[in-house]
Design goal:
By secondary structure, the chain is of the alpha/beta class. The protein has one domain: 3-Layer(aba) Sandwich (Rossmann fold), CATH 3.40.50. 35% of the residues lie in helices and 21% in strands. The strands form 2 sheets. The chain has a 6-stranded mixed beta sheet. The protein has a 4-stranded antiparallel beta sheet with strand order 2-1-4-5, covered by helices on one side. Strand 4 and strand 5 form a beta hairpin. Helix 6 runs parallel beside helix 7 and helix 7 packs parallel to helix 10. The termini are far apart. The structure holds adenosine-5'-diphosphate and magnesium ion (MG).
Amino acid sequence: MSMPQPDETAGPGTEPKPRAYDADAEPVIRIDNLVSAFDENVVHEGLSLEVRRGEIIGLVGGSGAGKSVLLNTLIGLRDPQGGTVEVLGVDVQKATGPERDELERRWGVLFQSGALFSSLTVRENVSAPMSEHTGLSNHMTAELADTKLAMVGLPPRAGNLHPAELSGGMRKRAGLARAIALDPELLFLDEPTAGLDPISAEAFDTLISNLSEALGLTVFMITHDLDSLYALCDRVAVIADKKIVAVGPISDLEKSDHPWIKQYFLGPRGRAAATAADKPVRDTAVQGPNTDMPKEGA
Ligand SMILES: Nc1ncnc2c1ncn2[C@@H]1O[C@H](COP(=O)(O)OP(=O)(O)O)[C@@H](O)[C@H]1O
Ligand SMILES: [Mg+2]
């Protein structure tokens, strides 16, 4: 295997190692010849993609290209019209009962809206998957929820608040805490930095990078955010013309002749993101700088 290996001597406080796509690693997602349609509206037609263990893969594509429909299909919320979807070795559409339950324990999802229960506190939101999937006491799940909140850079007092009392960046962090509540091996993110100001978005990128590193996650991330793609992704998959038209490191995609890809990566925003990516500003702690947390008593 020719992939660069992590430096064994690197301790905490050193630069995060560059993550790598390992073509020999086990596939954790296998999408084969997927067909999705809403009546006459065909969204996916022969879409195939494999995601390998340990990589952070970004999915990009125009608005309405079928990214969220793909995510919903991957997590079994939607049955496709054709093809197969295998996640963590299980045919998602056929998984029922305990098999389905196990899948839900092994993956975490951060939906675009955050999808937190508005009537529950943040701590209760993060505890919810634990209560659903484990036999732990309420006391235990609350304590574990607080450790998850700390991991995403939220203070314990945030646990007492309701989602509406949080800033956008804090809500994303709370959603992420819930997504990692059950120590998943696979994390799905739908537009995690959409709606955040640039500083909060960068802090959130750093958080995802450090968490995925610390927890050994495989990450499937839908995003429009070119800065996130450059900062985080080992590979990027492009959805256009109802299928994955290209997948690879950004440096490869920048050479693509596909009109959408050319416009996306070589337009002014793409070039600005590429330039910014040459100036690494990564934080090294597991918690990213928490710029969006209001000051105590503020
Ligand atoms: N529940 C639905 N009913 C009918 N059409 C839908 C539904 N969800 C998505 N679509 C259609 O599927 C296409 C892809 O949508 P989506 O996956 O949400 O796009 P995006 O890439 O922006 O996430 C769009 O044409 C959308 O109108
Ligand atoms: Mg979408």
